[in-house]
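Please predict the structure of the following assembly.
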Amino acid sequence: MSSAPDDQPIIEFQKARYQLPTGRILLQEVTFAVPRGETLVLLGRSGAGKTTALKLINRLLEPSAGKVCVEGRSTLDWDPIALRRRIGYVIQESGLFPHYTVGQNVSLVPRLEGWAAERIEGRVRELFALVGLDPDEFLARYPHELSGGQRQRVGVARALAADPPILLMDEPLGALDPLTRGDVRREFHDLQKRLRKTVVIVTHDISEALLLGTRIGLMEAGELRGIYSPKEFLSATEPLAAAYTAQLRVLEEAREQK
Amino acid sequence: MKLLAFLSQHGDEILQATLEHVWLVALTMLLAIAIGVPLGILVARRPWLSKPILGTANVAETIPSLALFGFLLPVPWLGNRADRVAIAALTLYALLPIIRNTATGIAGVDRAVREAARGMGMTEQQILFHVELPLSLSTIIAGIRVATILTIGIATIAAAVGTGGLGEFIFRGLAMVNNPLILAGAIPAAALALMADFGLSLLERRLRPAR
C-alpha cells in the first residue's frame, strides 16, 4: 500500500461529475474531501445525487469528468476489485445473499481473500458480537429468518468483515421501523466511536444525519450545497438546511404540546 | 387383456427400447444444458443478443420435428448416423426453454443482492458462480424440466430416422394397425415423462431460494 500521510484526505472528490449516457446529469461538478476517521453524512432528497456520489467512491460508477480519489489515488487507477475490498458497503434492505447463512454472508469476503479457516471463524464471531448478535444463536440462520433490524446488523458485520478502512452506507436504516431504527442508530453511533473508520452515509433523514455525522453534506439536484458540522447545520441560513431544521422543530413542538 | 399379454411377451424388447430412449434423451439433455445455460447467461449479460439468440431458438422450435429430422439427414457427418441426426434435432428443440429460463432466472436476481456482491469486490465470475447461478438454479431446473418432457415426447418421432427407442413400437404399430404395439411404445414414454416431471419438480422446489 502507498504510505499515504495521515493528514491526506482518504476520499477526495475533485470536480467529479456523473452523467448518464442519455445526457442526464446526476451529479454536477462536486468537490469535497473526507479526512480519515470522519463520518460524513450526505443528506438530501431522493434524486439529489447522494447514492451516485457514494457509488463513485467504490467505483460502481466512474466519473464522467473530474476525479474521485481514494487514499490519494484516482479510483480509475485502482483495480476495482482491490478498491472494493478496502471499502465496506452497506445498502438498504442489506442485500444479503438469501442462499447463504448469515455466517456465510459475513465470511464471504475473508473467504475470497483466502484467509485461514480458524481466522475466519474467529473474525465472524467477533463481528457478530460487535453488532450485538449472539453468534451461537445466529450464525447458522438464513437471512429470511431474521428481522429487518437483525439483517441490517448482519449487513454491517459483512461490510466490516475484512476490516476495511472505509465504510459506505446507503440508507442503511431506510427499511427499518422507527423504533428499530433508533436502536440500530444508537448502536452504530457507539460502534463508530470504537472503530474509528472513515464512514460515508447517505440518508434523507435529518435526525440520522445529526446523530451519526461528524459533518453533514447537503445535496440537492446533483449539487453539493455545503458541508456543515451538526452544530453549524442547525443554524445554517441555506434555505434547504433551514427547511430540514424546521422539520426538527415541528417534532419538538409536537412533543412539547403533549 | 391383449395388451397385458403383449407386454409380458415382449417385456425384454420394451425394456431395451426404453433404455435406448432414456439414453437418447439423456445425451440430448446433456448437450442442450451444456449449450443452453451458457447461451442463457450470455443473453442475460448482453440484452442485445436476446433477440437473435432467442429468435433463432424460437424458429427452431416451430419446425415440425419430422421435417427437421429430414432436413438434417443430408448434413455431412451428422447425417452419417441416425442417432447423430436425432440428438442434433432434439437438442435444437430442447434449447429454447433452457436458454429462456436461464436468462430469466439470472435477470430475476434481486438488484440489491447483485449490487452488494459487486460492492463487496466480487469479480464478475464470482458473482456468476456464487450468487447468480445458485439463486436462479430453480428457474433453470424448471426450464430443464420442460425441455426434458418435450424431448421424451419428440424422441419417439426420432424412430422415423431409425434411432430405435420407444418410437419404434409406435411406428410399427401404426403401420400394422396394431394398438397394443402402439401402446407398448406410448405408455412407457408417458411414464418416463411423468417420472422426469416429478423428479425434476421436486429438485426445483428444493433449490428454490427461501424468501
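Strands of chain A lie at 11-19, 25-34, 39-44, 65-70, 73-74, 87-91, 166-170, 198-203, 215-220, 223-228. Chain A touches chain B through 28 residues (CB under 8 Å).
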